[in-house]
Predict the structure.
Amino acid sequence: MTESPRSALTHELRDSLARAIAQVNTVVLGKRREVRLAFVCLLAGGHLLIEDLPGVGKTTLAHALAATLGLGFQRLQFTSDLLPSDIIGVGIYERETGQFKFHPGPLFTQLLLADEINRAMPKTQSALLEAMAEEQATVDGTTHRLTPPFFVVATQNPLDFAGTYPLPDSQLDRFMLRMSLGYPDRDAERAMLGAIDRRSVIESLSPCLTSEQILELRHACTNVFASPALIEYVQALLSASREHAEIRVGLSPRAGLALLAAARANAMLAGRPQCVPEDVQTVFPFVAAHRLTPATSARADRDRLALQLLESTPVR
């Protein structure tokens, strides 16, 4: 019989995770669903893309996560003149030794905030691919491992903003979840306007988790049970995306693995011993939409198509 993830974790670890989520919610007001999704992505071992208008709290969420998780943190502002070596690092010749010594770039951290990632050229964006997929970077034929857990939080502005470049599908596919924050509700905005500056709040935060605890939580997520019936439901969603008349390229097997991993993390956060269809349905729009290629060129159709797939695919 599969052991409940709640019983498999110590009380201390469960309490630390609850405190971490609560602490981020004290900074990012009125966005409990989005904060939960950020933790789903972290615990599922994925990377997070936040797409929204400037000024709605994308960077604030990333800073709050960094302060709460106790991870090494680097923020990198993406610009049109940013080079791959500015991200990964570069080998510099040392006359004393007669050799090149690798000087790591900001990529070599645990939580990387890639701010306004779609302001950089596609070649620069692609510098993150190997790190996001394999937690390593190769420079001059030498592979350098990153320190786990490695978590990328990227922000991007809508594509109708000047000076932005669409992320290629290969880059989008490396992000487990894509979400938007949107404007706060009236009560949250009033509380925000009447409170002290968010930067001061973030500076006062204390880490609630350690790297070791995050890795333990990730391991617990992999042990959450997914029944054959649930896996059939996930597969049905994948098949439906490939057969839909308005979708040119549907979801890949990698998307299916990401969907199942995110559903497991959502179940663990809810204290359930196994995934249920509601876990899949909760995360599906955020896992699937950015991976769909509509038959038309309208990228905005992705969200609508993801919801349509969810509504038209029965639970098995």
